From TrEMBL:
EC number: 1.1.1.23
EC class of the enzyme, as a word: oxidoreductase
Gene: hisD
Pathway: Amino-acid biosynthesis; L-histidine biosynthesis; L-histidine from 5-phospho-alpha-D-ribose 1-diphosphate: step 9/9
Name of this protein: Histidinol dehydrogenase
Catalytic activity: L-histidinol + 2 NAD(+) + H2O = L-histidine + 2 NADH + 3 H(+)
Positions of Zn(2+) binding: 254, 257, 356, 415
Lineage: superkingdom: Bacteria
InterPro entries: Ald_DH/histidinol_DH, Histidinol_DH_CS, Histidinol_DH_monofunct, Hstdl_DH
Record text on cofactor binding: Binds 1 zinc ion per subunit.
Species name: Oceanobacillus piezotolerans
One Pfam family this sequence matches: Histidinol_dh
């Protein structure tokens, strides 16, 4: 894990030209999958599942019997924890609901905005080697609150041809009973364009590997997507009050996602920086996923020493991290300095995993600097808005000349005529 000053960090950012990753091979593979799914539909999904997951499917659906079997495989402790998390997530996202509204102006003018939920949403849940029931809750609950009536889940099957019982338990708890045993770019193609079994959706949400992310990028425009997620990121701002073991543990909690994950600490103390580096190396040796953690920390881990907290937040806003922890004294006094971050965790007892699983705010967050312009997944991602305009005859005629002038300036004389014909009717 490198230690460098804030000045060195900014100097490196200026000198490093953005690199264009050679993704041509990935794109060719993804586009080939999308083409084949559009052409061969279900048969392509079955073939790709056998090719990539080593599973021969009799049916793409998770059956009712499989849902029932899942209930017997998950313990009461898991269900209890899942229920608590669900309640917290639901309460938080209820506050995001938007309503249709109207405003009345003089001369019988009515303006407004109609809020309508999307008709059909597809949720992608990563699977195969691991289970992510938390992502089921995070992606489904906001859609439910928004009023989406049709929600389906796609997820890769395990080696036994079944979906993780933990994912199925979460799906049922969240109110989704249509789950397809399909993963990868082929699942995204199926959701975007439809097959004999899977109906086309209006929007696809949920994280996935590089193939899933690239497929989402290619189908965008034919269908809406939430975001194109990159490797996980955490940035911890730590002053002298931050417990070193806590800082190290939180950095490692993100490094374990994959080798490309980014774990960065910004501190105001050179002494603290050395202590954190030593503790990170010590804890990493004791962790189960150290084979993933070590390359992540070695390649992407940094500890940046800033002159003061204001300088530390300059680094924060330059990086625009997915997860930002403020392990400093009186964090609320500094939160206004944060301009770009997906989620902000304040204090020594608000570690990032609290947000991943339990607190309530969504854990589907913008990565790779996109927090500069993007937001966490929310209820607002599952609605669309229509403008409402109603003018009385008198109100239109009062504005007619201005509208005609603007239309003529743009050379859109048919627009102008649409107004003129009503104006002339009055004068006739």
């Amino acid at each position: 894990m490198r230690i460098l000053t804030a000045e060195e960090f900014f100097a490196e950012r200026k000198q490093t030209s953005p690199t264009i990753t050679n993704e041509e091979k990935l794109d060719r593979a993804v586009l080939d999958i999308i083409h084949n799914v559009r052409k061969q539909k279900d048969s392509a999904l079955i073939n790709y599942t056998e090719q990539f997951d080593g599973v021969t499917l009799d049916s793409l659906f998770v059956t009712e019997e499989e849902f029932e079997e899942a209930k017997t495989q998950v313990g009461d402790e898991f269900i209890s924890a899942l229920n608590e998390a669900k309640n917290n997530i639901q309460a938080f996202h209820e506050a995001q609901k938007e309503q249709t509204w109207f405003m009345e102006k003089d001369n019988d003018i009515l303006l407004g905005q109609k809020v309508t939920p999307l008709d059909r949403v597809g949720v992608y849940i990563p699977g195969g080697k691991a289970a992510y029931p938390s992502s089921v809750l995070m992606d489904v609950i906001p859609a439910k609150i928004a009023g989406v009536k049709n929600i389906v889940i796609t997820t890769p099957p395990q080696q036994d041809g079944k979906v993780s019982p933990y994912v199925l338990a979460a799906a049922e708890l969240a109110g989704v009973n249509t789950v397809f045993k399909v993963g990868g770019a082929q699942a995204i193609a199926a959701l975007a364009y439809g097959t004999e079994t899977i109906s086309k959706v209006d929007k696809i949400v949920g994280p996935g590997n590089a193939y899933v992310a690239r497929a989402k990028k290619w189908v965008y425009g034919d269908v809406a997507i939430d975001m194109i997620a990159g490797p996980s990121e955490i940035l911890v701002v730590a002053d002298e009050t931050a417990p070193v073991p806590y800082v190290a543990a939180d950095l490692l909690s993100q490094a374990e996602h994959d080798e490309s994950a980014s774990a960065i600490c910004v501190t105001t103390s050179a002494e603290q920086a050395l202590l954190i580096k030593t503790e990170v190396n010590k804890q990493a040796e004791q962790l189960e996923r150290k084979d993933i953690i070590k390359p992540s920390i070695q390649d992407n881990g940094k500890i940046i020493i800033a002159e003061n907290l204001h300088a530390a937040f300059d680094v924060v806003n330059e990086i625009a991290p997915e997860h930002l922890e403020l392990m400093i004294e009186n964090p609320r006094d500094y939160v206004e300095l944060v301009k770009h971050a997906g989620a902000i965790f304040m204090g020594h007892y608000s570690p990032e995993p609290l947000g991943d699983y339990f607190a309530g705010p969504n854990h589907t967050l913008p990565t790779n600097g996109t927090a500069r312009f993007a937001s966490p997944l929310g209820v607002y991602d599952f609605i669309k808005k229509s403008s409402i305009i109603q003018y009385s005859k008198d109100a239109l005629l009062q504005s007619a000349d201005s509208i005609i002038t603007l239309a003529n300036v743009e050379g859109l004389t048919a627009h102008a005529n649409s107004i003129k014909i009503r104006k002339e009717e009055k004068n006739a």
